[in-house]
């Protein structure tokens, strides 16, 4: 009898657990995985074991396994190791680099990117991953942020042009400039490819990187921010490990093949994609650039099983005409961030049962989330263990004053479930915030004090998130002076600085507006013109075309007599962003940047074709 009661109780237990929490098993599995990971990371960090060490161990474990596939060529782990020995030796011979120095890379996706980075790791050097869309002033700024001694630029006309443009300043600072070609005619720029080809591929002594610890900078990755100009986030080897372990949490196995096509200078492709692949010891299929028409053909051709995404990419894929072989592929995991709920559902329905693992986190951030359940639309899930090891809070935020709301004691107020709050991560031993290279002011600006108790210290993510009744976390909005468009961060003040260089512009307020059916926000600017000067569509178009990458160019311009400012003379963006670009609602001149034509007056027709999605933005 007692046995019978016990047995029934045991049988009912799962049901009770399920009713209380339908995700019980997945939560348990996550708890188990993260504990395992925590123990493992603690052990390897004590030994100052870096991702390079992991790579070398994989080379020893399976030298003949394919590491990299690029266009028609492929490289085994052992070949990759030898290629990186060559680049390391070439740099060692032809420069005076020593451990602790930084080398800036201005490269597109190609195998050499990876060989140079691995080579730099072998020399104990740090790589600064420059965005290869940036030019002139921004390029020089990014360069000086990281104190690089050497610049390596890709072969081809554009990188050469950009490099020549800034060459006098670089030379003044005694910086060595290399271009990845076999020869170079330009004085002051040296070719590197020929030197690499002539160098031996013998392994390099560990002594060359003897001083590297888990806290040493491994990379500088640039993020846009409130200053306008990009900031160099310091990615230590420890931080790198955390991002590289996302594949492990997402369930990537050693027989998987990952497709990496996002730019390697971003965290997604470099850390989550390439770094994670090295951690797992798998094969990387690298592509120069995203191509919507080749995407699934590539996946089929290379037997890709894991893809990465940013929200925009998923939408582009869903927007292509349906094909009979849409579900004919081996992709089983998609890892990334920023997919919208509707696109997500559409993606699954169209391309089959793929485990979409949405993650949330900033390059320089100290706490992130992972949606290990696959709940459509959520960026993660509150889990007691995660919260215990990575403390965080959602606090009430005043969007007009642009600061957290504080109570009578001067402390922040946590928002209840279901209410949107600013996400802040507690800075601590396990959750350090390293900040930005040579930019103490911006580093300090990201810190928030006296949050829950006097004297505590948090990292201000700048993101507004919401937690629902079930514990799922949803992205709501981004505060402050950056917005995202086409997967790139756009710093409003940087764009405004460029607009101010145009002779008829007196003041510029740049912000992002939402467009139906698109992730993120598209650029818009409110301008005040100088007295007695007219809006010159052509001049403005030429200027933005020459000085800004296409994703950062304001697509809408409105002219105002006065630009609204707050009591502390900060520009007001929230109201403008809400007003959007509907000509029926906006008084005053309104322009639209039409491809090839420049800024044309906005009409009802243009507005309708944008909202209906018939104009490509
Ligand atoms: C390595 O560290 C030691 C001890 O701090 C220091 O003396 C030495 O100069 C460092 N070597 C390099 C190449 O930085
Ligand atoms: C992909 O898998 C198929 C079947 O397992 C195999 O025949 C083919 O050679 C593989 N292709 C590549 C590029 O590995």
From TrEMBL:
Residues 495-570 form the AMP-binding enzyme C-terminal domain. One of its GO terms (biological process) is long-chain fatty acid import into cell. GO terms for cellular component: endoplasmic reticulum membrane; plasma membrane. GO terms for molecular function: long-chain fatty acid transmembrane transporter activity; long-chain fatty acid-CoA ligase activity; nucleotide binding. Keywords: Cell membrane, Fatty acid metabolism, Ligase, Lipid metabolism, Lipid transport, Membrane, Nucleotide-binding, Transmembrane, Transmembrane helix, Transport. It catalyses: tetracosanoate + ATP + CoA = tetracosanoyl-CoA + AMP + diphosphate; a very long-chain fatty acid + ATP + CoA = a very long-chain fatty acyl-CoA + AMP + diphosphate; a long-chain fatty acid + ATP + CoA = a long-chain fatty acyl-CoA + AMP + diphosphate. It is an enzyme of class 6 (ligase). It holds the Pfam family AMP-binding. It is found in: Cell membrane. Residues 57-371 form the AMP-dependent synthetase/ligase domain. Belongs to the ATP-dependent AMP-binding enzyme family. This is long-chain-fatty-acid--CoA ligase.
């Amino acid at each position: 009898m007692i046995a019978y009661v016990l047995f029934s109780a045991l049988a009912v237990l799962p049901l009770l657990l399920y009713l209380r929490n339908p995700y019980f098993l997945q939560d348990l599995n996550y708890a188990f995985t993260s504990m395992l990971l925590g123990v493992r990371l603690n052990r390897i960090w004590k030994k100052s074991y870096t991702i390079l060490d992991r790579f070398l161990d994989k080379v020893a474990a399976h030298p003949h396994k394919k590491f990299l596939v690029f266009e028609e060529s492929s490289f085994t782990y052992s070949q990759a190791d030898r290629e990186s020995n060559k680049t390391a030796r070439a740099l060692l011979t032809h420069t005076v680099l020593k451990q602790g120095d930084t080398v800036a890379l201005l490269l597109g996706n190609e195998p050499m990117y990876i060989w140079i980075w691995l080579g730099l790791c072998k020399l104990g050097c740090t790589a600064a991953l420059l965005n290869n869309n940036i030019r002139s002033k921004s390029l020089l700024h990014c360069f000086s942020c990281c104190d690089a001694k050497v610049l390596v630029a890709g072969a081809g006309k554009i990188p050469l042009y950009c490099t020549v443009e800034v060459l006098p300043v670089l030379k003044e600072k005694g910086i060595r400039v290399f271009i990845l070609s076999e020869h170079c005619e330009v004085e002051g720029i040296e070719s590197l490819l020929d030197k690499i080809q002539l160098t031996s591929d013998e392994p390099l002594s560990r002594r060359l990187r003897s001083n590297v610890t888990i806290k040493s900078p491994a990379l500088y990755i640039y993020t846009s921010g409130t200053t306008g100009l990009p900031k160099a986030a310091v990615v230590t080897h420890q931080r790198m490990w955390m991002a590289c372990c996302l594949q492990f949490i997402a369930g990537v196995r050693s027989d998987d093949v990952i497709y990496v096509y996002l730019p390697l200078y971003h965290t997604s492709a470099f850390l989550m994609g390439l770094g994670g692949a090295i951690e797992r010891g798998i094969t990387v299929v690298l592509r120069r650039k995203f191509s919507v028409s080749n995407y699934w053909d590539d996946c089929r051709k290379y037997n890709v099983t894991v893809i990465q995404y940013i929200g925009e990419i998923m939408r582009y894929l869903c927007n292509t005409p349906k094909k009979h072989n849409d579900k004919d592929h081996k992709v089983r995991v998609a890892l990334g961030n920023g997919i919208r709920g509707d696109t997500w559902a559409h993606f699954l329905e169209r391309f089959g049962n793929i485990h979409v693992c949405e993650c949330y986190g900033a390059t320089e951030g100290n706490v992130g989330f992972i949606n290990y359940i696959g709940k459509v639309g959520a960026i993660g899930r509150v889990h007691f263990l995660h919260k215990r090891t990575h403390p965080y809070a959602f606090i009430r935020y005043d969007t007009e004053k642009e600061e957290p709301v504080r109570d009578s004691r001067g402390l922040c107020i946590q928002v209840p479930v279901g209410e949107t709050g600013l996400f802040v991560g507690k800075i601590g031993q396990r959750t350090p915030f390293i900040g930005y290279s040579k930019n103490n002011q911006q580093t300090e600006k990201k810190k928030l004090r006296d949050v829950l108790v006097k004297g505590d210290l948090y990292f201000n993510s700048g993101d507004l998130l919401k937690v629902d009744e079930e514990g799922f976390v949803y992205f709501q909005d981004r505060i402050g002076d950056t917005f995202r468009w086409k997967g790139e961060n756009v710093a409003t003040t940087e764009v405004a600085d460029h607009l101010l260089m145009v002779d008829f512009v007196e003041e510029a307020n740049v912000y992002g507006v939402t467009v139906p059916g698109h992730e993120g926000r598209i650029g818009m600017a409110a301008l005040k013109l100088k007295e007695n000067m007219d809006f010159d569509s052509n001049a403005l178009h030429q200027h933005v075309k020459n000085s800004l990458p296409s994703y950062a160019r304001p697509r809408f311009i409105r002219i105002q007599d006065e630009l609204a400012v707050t009591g502390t003379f900060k520009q007001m963006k929230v109201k403008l962003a809400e007003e959007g670009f509907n000509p029926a609602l906006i008084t005053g001149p309104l322009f639209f940047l039409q491809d090839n034509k420049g800024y044309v007056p906005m009409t009802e027709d243009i507005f309708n074709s944008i909202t209906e999605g018939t104009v490509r933005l």
